[in-house]
Amino acid sequence: EGPESLPPLSSEAAVRVLQGRMKGIQGHCNSCYMDAALFSLFSCTSVLDSMLFMPFPLCDRNVQGILRDEIVNPLRRTGFVRASSVMHLREQLTDKGQCSSFTNAEKDPEEFLNLIMQQILGIEPLLKLQSGGQKEHECYCYQIFMDKQEDLVVPDVQQLVERSFLSSDLKLVEIPSCFIIQMPRFGKEYKMFSKIIPSLELDITDLLLDSPRECCLCGDVATLECS
To answer: What distances in angstroms separate CA 172 from CA 102, 177, 202, one per listed residue?
Structure first.
Protein backbone atom coordinates (compact mmCIF):
# COMPACT_ATOMS: atom_id res chain seq x y z
CA GLU A 1 0.00 0.00 0.00
CA GLY A 2 1.41 3.41 -1.02
CA PRO A 3 1.56 6.57 1.07
CA GLU A 4 -1.73 8.27 1.94
CA SER A 5 -2.73 11.13 -0.34
CA LEU A 6 -5.12 13.77 1.01
CA PRO A 7 -6.34 16.53 -1.33
CA PRO A 8 -5.82 20.19 -0.36
CA LEU A 9 -8.71 21.98 1.31
CA SER A 10 -11.21 23.67 -1.01
CA SER A 11 -12.92 26.98 -0.21
CA GLU A 12 -15.75 25.81 2.09
CA ALA A 13 -13.74 22.99 3.62
CA ALA A 14 -10.82 25.37 4.23
CA VAL A 15 -13.00 27.71 6.30
CA ARG A 16 -14.50 24.81 8.25
CA VAL A 17 -11.21 23.00 8.93
CA LEU A 18 -8.75 25.88 9.32
CA GLN A 19 -10.74 28.55 11.17
CA GLY A 20 -10.67 28.95 14.94
CA ARG A 21 -8.39 28.30 17.91
CA MET A 22 -5.69 25.61 17.79
CA LYS A 23 -5.68 25.62 14.01
CA GLY A 24 -2.79 25.91 11.58
CA ILE A 25 0.81 25.00 12.39
CA GLN A 26 1.88 25.40 16.01
CA GLY A 27 4.86 27.72 16.49
CA HIS A 28 7.89 26.86 18.61
CA CYS A 29 11.50 28.13 18.84
CA ASN A 30 11.41 30.69 15.99
CA SER A 31 9.63 28.34 13.59
CA CYS A 32 7.35 31.03 12.11
CA TYR A 33 9.30 31.30 8.82
CA MET A 34 8.85 27.56 8.19
CA ASP A 35 5.28 27.35 9.53
CA ALA A 36 4.10 30.16 7.24
CA ALA A 37 5.92 28.70 4.22
CA LEU A 38 4.55 25.17 4.72
CA PHE A 39 1.01 26.44 5.32
CA SER A 40 1.12 28.56 2.15
CA LEU A 41 2.58 25.79 -0.02
CA PHE A 42 0.29 22.94 1.02
CA SER A 43 -2.90 23.83 2.93
CA CYS A 44 -5.11 24.85 0.00
CA THR A 45 -3.17 24.03 -3.17
CA SER A 46 -1.81 20.88 -4.78
CA VAL A 47 0.65 22.65 -7.12
CA LEU A 48 3.66 21.34 -5.16
CA ASP A 49 2.27 17.94 -4.16
CA SER A 50 4.98 16.33 -6.29
CA MET A 51 7.30 17.25 -3.38
CA LEU A 52 5.38 14.74 -1.26
CA PHE A 53 5.31 11.76 -3.63
CA MET A 54 7.72 11.96 -6.58
CA PRO A 55 10.84 9.78 -6.36
CA PHE A 56 13.21 12.56 -7.47
CA PRO A 57 16.77 11.38 -8.29
CA LEU A 58 18.34 13.06 -5.23
CA CYS A 59 15.30 12.68 -3.01
CA ASP A 60 15.69 11.96 0.70
CA ARG A 61 12.68 9.69 1.30
CA ASN A 62 12.84 10.11 5.08
CA VAL A 63 12.42 13.91 4.90
CA GLN A 64 9.76 13.51 2.21
CA GLY A 65 7.84 11.11 4.48
CA ILE A 66 7.98 13.47 7.49
CA LEU A 67 6.78 16.37 5.32
CA ARG A 68 3.88 14.36 3.92
CA ASP A 69 2.76 12.20 6.87
CA GLU A 70 3.52 14.43 9.88
CA ILE A 71 2.81 17.90 8.46
CA VAL A 72 0.79 18.12 5.22
CA ASN A 73 -1.68 15.27 5.79
CA PRO A 74 -2.56 16.31 9.39
CA LEU A 75 -2.95 19.92 8.22
CA ARG A 76 -5.39 18.88 5.49
CA ARG A 77 -7.20 16.33 7.68
CA THR A 78 -7.67 18.24 10.94
CA GLY A 79 -6.34 21.74 10.25
CA PHE A 80 -3.69 21.41 12.97
CA VAL A 81 -0.01 20.42 13.06
CA ARG A 82 1.88 20.02 16.34
CA ALA A 83 5.13 21.89 16.89
CA SER A 84 6.87 18.53 17.56
CA SER A 85 6.20 17.47 13.96
CA VAL A 86 7.80 20.62 12.58
CA MET A 87 10.72 20.15 14.99
CA HIS A 88 11.18 16.62 13.62
CA LEU A 89 11.51 18.11 10.13
CA ARG A 90 13.86 20.84 11.40
CA GLU A 91 16.12 18.24 13.04
CA GLN A 92 16.35 16.35 9.75
CA LEU A 93 17.14 19.56 7.85
CA THR A 94 19.90 20.34 10.34
CA ASP A 95 21.39 16.87 9.76
CA LYS A 96 21.21 17.18 5.96
CA GLY A 97 22.05 20.88 5.55
CA GLN A 98 25.19 22.91 5.94
CA CYS A 99 23.63 24.91 8.77
CA SER A 100 23.36 23.79 12.39
CA SER A 101 20.73 26.32 13.53
CA PHE A 102 17.56 25.15 11.75
CA THR A 103 16.16 23.88 15.07
CA ASN A 104 16.37 27.13 17.04
CA ALA A 105 17.08 30.23 14.94
CA GLU A 106 14.85 32.41 12.81
CA LYS A 107 15.65 31.94 9.11
CA ASP A 108 14.74 33.45 5.80
CA PRO A 109 12.03 31.31 4.12
CA GLU A 110 14.14 31.28 0.96
CA GLU A 111 16.95 29.48 2.79
CA PHE A 112 14.51 26.79 3.92
CA LEU A 113 12.94 26.41 0.45
CA ASN A 114 16.32 26.19 -1.29
CA LEU A 115 17.53 23.53 1.12
CA ILE A 116 14.44 21.32 0.99
CA MET A 117 13.74 21.70 -2.74
CA GLN A 118 17.25 21.64 -4.14
CA GLN A 119 19.47 19.70 -1.77
CA ILE A 120 17.00 17.32 -0.15
CA LEU A 121 14.38 16.61 -2.82
CA GLY A 122 16.36 17.53 -5.93
CA ILE A 123 13.56 19.47 -7.64
CA GLU A 124 14.35 21.54 -10.74
CA PRO A 125 14.10 25.34 -10.17
CA LEU A 126 10.57 26.72 -10.60
CA LEU A 127 11.42 30.19 -11.95
CA LYS A 128 13.53 31.51 -14.80
CA LEU A 129 14.27 35.23 -14.54
CA GLN A 130 16.20 37.68 -16.68
CA SER A 131 17.51 41.03 -15.45
CA GLY A 132 18.24 43.88 -17.84
CA GLY A 133 18.72 41.64 -20.85
CA GLN A 134 21.53 39.73 -19.13
CA LYS A 135 21.92 35.95 -18.80
CA GLU A 136 18.87 34.25 -17.30
CA HIS A 137 19.04 32.75 -13.82
CA GLU A 138 16.93 30.08 -12.12
CA CYS A 139 15.50 30.04 -8.61
CA TYR A 140 12.79 28.45 -6.46
CA CYS A 141 11.03 31.57 -5.22
CA TYR A 142 10.98 35.32 -5.76
CA GLN A 143 11.48 37.75 -2.91
CA ILE A 144 9.97 41.21 -3.36
CA PHE A 145 12.58 43.94 -2.95
CA MET A 146 11.55 47.57 -3.20
CA ASP A 147 12.09 50.98 -1.66
CA LYS A 148 9.42 52.43 0.58
CA GLN A 149 6.73 53.93 -1.65
CA GLU A 150 4.57 56.63 -0.11
CA ASP A 151 1.61 56.09 -2.44
CA LEU A 152 1.28 52.44 -1.37
CA VAL A 153 -0.34 52.35 2.07
CA VAL A 154 -2.19 49.03 1.86
CA PRO A 155 -0.89 47.42 -1.36
CA ASP A 156 -2.00 44.17 -2.95
CA VAL A 157 0.36 41.45 -4.15
CA GLN A 158 -0.16 42.38 -7.82
CA GLN A 159 1.10 45.94 -7.20
CA LEU A 160 4.09 44.76 -5.18
CA VAL A 161 5.23 42.19 -7.75
CA GLU A 162 4.88 44.63 -10.66
CA ARG A 163 6.79 47.42 -8.90
CA SER A 164 9.48 45.06 -7.66
CA PHE A 165 10.05 43.65 -11.17
CA LEU A 166 10.13 47.19 -12.58
CA SER A 167 12.64 48.51 -10.04
CA SER A 168 14.95 45.49 -10.59
CA ASP A 169 14.47 45.50 -14.39
CA LEU A 170 13.33 41.87 -14.25
CA LYS A 171 11.30 39.68 -16.60
CA LEU A 172 9.99 36.12 -16.37
CA VAL A 173 11.60 34.12 -19.18
CA GLU A 174 8.61 31.74 -19.27
CA ILE A 175 5.31 31.17 -17.49
CA PRO A 176 6.26 29.41 -14.22
CA SER A 177 4.62 26.15 -13.18
CA CYS A 178 4.51 27.58 -9.67
CA PHE A 179 5.24 31.19 -8.66
CA ILE A 180 6.27 31.34 -4.97
CA ILE A 181 6.48 34.97 -3.85
CA GLN A 182 8.00 36.15 -0.58
CA MET A 183 6.51 39.40 0.69
CA PRO A 184 8.69 42.39 1.70
CA ARG A 185 10.60 42.22 4.97
CA PHE A 186 8.43 41.96 8.05
CA GLY A 187 10.66 41.61 11.10
CA LYS A 188 10.70 42.81 14.70
CA GLU A 189 12.66 45.94 13.82
CA TYR A 190 11.01 47.08 10.60
CA LYS A 191 7.69 46.61 8.84
CA MET A 192 7.43 48.05 5.34
CA PHE A 193 3.64 47.62 5.21
CA SER A 194 1.26 47.02 8.10
CA LYS A 195 -1.03 45.00 5.80
CA ILE A 196 -0.86 43.46 2.32
CA ILE A 197 -4.02 42.41 0.48
CA PRO A 198 -3.67 38.96 -1.15
CA SER A 199 -4.31 39.02 -4.91
CA LEU A 200 -6.38 35.90 -5.59
CA GLU A 201 -5.22 35.94 -9.20
CA LEU A 202 -1.94 37.31 -10.52
CA ASP A 203 -1.69 38.83 -14.01
CA ILE A 204 1.88 38.25 -15.24
CA THR A 205 1.28 39.48 -18.82
CA ASP A 206 3.50 42.55 -18.37
CA LEU A 207 6.15 40.56 -16.49
CA LEU A 208 6.80 38.05 -19.30
CA LEU A 209 9.78 38.42 -21.61
CA ASP A 210 8.88 38.85 -25.30
CA SER A 211 5.18 38.36 -24.64
CA PRO A 212 2.91 39.92 -27.32
CA ARG A 213 0.98 42.77 -25.72
CA GLU A 214 -1.49 45.41 -26.74
CA CYS A 215 -0.43 48.98 -27.53
CA CYS A 216 -2.09 51.27 -24.97
CA LEU A 217 -2.65 53.93 -27.66
CA CYS A 218 -3.88 52.13 -30.80
CA GLY A 219 -4.76 48.63 -29.55
CA ASP A 220 -2.53 46.82 -32.08
CA VAL A 221 0.31 44.50 -31.07
CA ALA A 222 2.91 46.67 -29.34
CA THR A 223 6.43 46.95 -30.74
CA LEU A 224 7.95 49.09 -27.98
CA GLU A 225 7.71 48.96 -24.20
CA CYS A 226 8.00 51.99 -21.97
CA SER A 227 8.85 51.19 -18.36
So the answer is: 31, 12, 13
